[in-house]
Specification:
Elements lengths: L2 E8 L21 H13 L5 E6 L3 H11 L6 E3 L43 H18 L4 E6 L1 H11 L18 E7 L2 E8 L19
Parallel strand pairs: 1-4, 2-3, 2-4
Antiparallel strand pairs: 1-5, 5-6
Helix pairs in contact: 1-2, 3-4
Length: 215
Amino acid sequence: MATTTVHLVRHGEVHNPERILYGRLPGYRLSDRGEQMASLVGAHLADSDIALVRSSPMLRAQQTSAPIAGPHGLEIDTDQRLIESGNHFEGQRMGHGQAKLSDPRNWRWFLNPFRPSWGEPYREQVARVVSAVHDARAAVEGREAVLVLHQLPIWLTRLSAEGRPLVHDPRRRQCGLCSVTSLRFVGPHLAGVDYAEPAAALYAGAVDATGGKLS
């Protein structure tokens, strides 16, 4: 049976001077450093046998996709299944103002971390990304595909692939900016998961999706 690899690439750093949880809000683009990160992941994958590049509809993912698709002469397809996870606190600064955990009006959003109650259920995120992965795998059988998306859906998909619980500590996610989580298949069966951080040299001082410093 053919060996096929589907790479899940997280987008680069976003221009977010207000440090809010931008989620699915439109218009959030890569920062200058994010564009450098995208170039690094593009170089990392330039010699791979990439036959397909699909992206989340969010601008930051589309921008990250461009230097990946370019060396292979590919167009970028958009896949709605790769969109960022939904979150009740989108547009707010976590731990500040209306998003404070100490505000009793918010307690109902934190009642069930297993679902989670503040946003799109973990299992639903896994289901849509896994569906996109298998469609990409079937489309490029024997070669490689790249899906460019977002940290939480990637991490949940990896946890599911490795048979681990979906409930987790967000501070312990192994899914850095412009990281590459590679799912290796033999035929339709998952054979292994690999991980790389081609943009790690740019992490110092970078800001993650919630507005916090990576280091």
